[in-house]
Known about the structure:
Structural class: alpha+beta
Low-confidence stretches: none
Number of helices: 4
Strand order of the largest sheet: 2-1-3-4
Strand content: 25-35%
Radius of gyration: 11 Å
Helix content: 40-55%
Distance between the termini: 11 Å
Mean pLDDT: 91
Number of strands: 4
Order of helices and strands: EHHEHEEH
Amino acid sequence: xxxxxxxxxxxxxxxxxxxxxxxxxxxxxxxxxxxxxxxxxxxxxxxxxxxxxxxxxxxxxxxxxxxxxxxxxxxxx
Length: 77
């Protein structure tokens, strides 16, 4: 699954980008980092902003993002 990540939203959490990318690759996703995904209102509120195969996502934490992506991947299997 291709995952587009908003770089700003990850940086705001203070969760470094490298561990997030590594976790996504471990789950066999293809992460693409964009500076901004144009959903700034949610980003400003501290959400992680992403798009998973075209589906917009915004979650409170990287852990929640990974759980939601695991659920999406299970549905596709």
